[in-house]
Amino acid sequence: MRATYAALVREAATGDRDAMERLLMGAQEVAYRFSLFVCGHPEDAEDVMQDALLKTYQHVSRITEPEAFRTWLYTTVRHACLMKRRRRVGEPSHLISIEQGIPSHDGTATPVDVVDDARPVDQRMSDASVDARVRQALQKVPPSSRAIVVMREMEGLSTREVAAITGISEANVKTRLHRARVMLRLQLERV
Amino acid sequence: MTGPASPDCAAILASISAYLDGELEVAECAAIERHCAGCPRCGTLVEGLRHTIGLCRDVGTAPLPEPVRERARASMRRLLDADERAPSD
């Protein structure tokens, strides 16, 4: 998709309406999915989607590196989600630690933090679809690791792209991804 | 999940994500596969993680709900149409 975005950005910047529409729809889809999976609130996801629409539209004419658009988009969307999350009263504000650890490279067990069970009402759905199960399980993964899972597994970004977006090292991205995968597996067995 | 059952298990577990992401050499992959063939605990974990990753990828490629797409399309058209109507100087 990175090559597609870069091509769309170039075409949209020249005034091609069709390319602009495809770019803006793509940006909104990314924003909605990312926000829904990371924050878990459909109404916030629509706000973040709207924000991505406006920012992408304003940004396109100023882009000098179309290849960097995807990184810019996820950085922008992630920031919007962080702002939303801070404003959320219902967001779990503390972590509880489980005794079981995730094996580290040195063979020791690292404690895992799992968000406690203060789920918002719209997450307590009886929908047993895979989508709902994954979303429900994701909410138990700490937010910073959750965003990494969403970008790597669901959005198909590379480790390098995720490192650039989150401002952490590639090694750290890999470590958090591994821990999050294990937590997600445990949660999927429960939901 | 409890801690690693053996030093071999610990070494394998630490490499699982790299293995699943195709980042290991052929010999390293073979070592993990040999270990998992004889260790149900690690074999189950590898398969469980592979399944989890597959689920995430399936969910990630699912289209947005049509009402959401429709609202996204309408917002976009309002924005573009308003900009086209705006006088340019």
Ordered list of secondary-structure elements with their pairings:
The complex is a heterodimer of chains A (191) and B (89).
Chain A: H1 2-13, H2 17-39, H3 42-60, H4 69-87, E1 95-103, E2 109-115, H5 130-138, H6 143-154, H7 159-166, H8 170-190
Antiparallel strand pairs in A: 1-2
Helix pairs in contact in A: 1-2, 2-3, 2-4, 2-6, 3-4, 4-7, 5-8, 6-8, 7-8
Chain B: H1 7-20, H2 26-38, H3 40-60, H4 66-85
Helix pairs in contact in B: 1-2, 1-3, 2-3
Entry summary:
The complex is a heterodimer of chains A (191) and B (89). Chain A is mostly helical.
Structure description:
The complex is a heterodimer of chains A (191) and B (89). Chain A is mainly alpha-helical and 191 residues long. Chain A contains 8 helices and 2 strands; from the N terminus they run ααααββαααα. In chain A, helix 4 crosses helix 7 (159-166). Chain A is globular and about 50 Å long. Helices cover 76% and strands 0% of the residues of chain B. In chain B, helix 1 (7-20) crosses helix 2 (26-38) and helix 1 runs parallel beside helix 3 (40-60). Classes of the chains: A mainly alpha (191), B mainly alpha (89). At the A-B interface, helix 2, helix 3, strand 1, helix 5 and helix 6 of A face helix 1, helix 3 and helix 4 of B.
Q: What structural keywords apply?
A:
heterodimer, A: 191 residues, mainly alpha, two-stranded antiparallel sheet, 8 helices, 2 strands, globular, B: 89 residues
The gyration radius over C-alpha positions of chain A equals 18 Å
Poorly predicted ranges of chain A: 93-105, 110-128
Number of strands of chain B: 0
**SS-based structural class of chain B?**
mainly alpha
Number of helices of chain B: 4
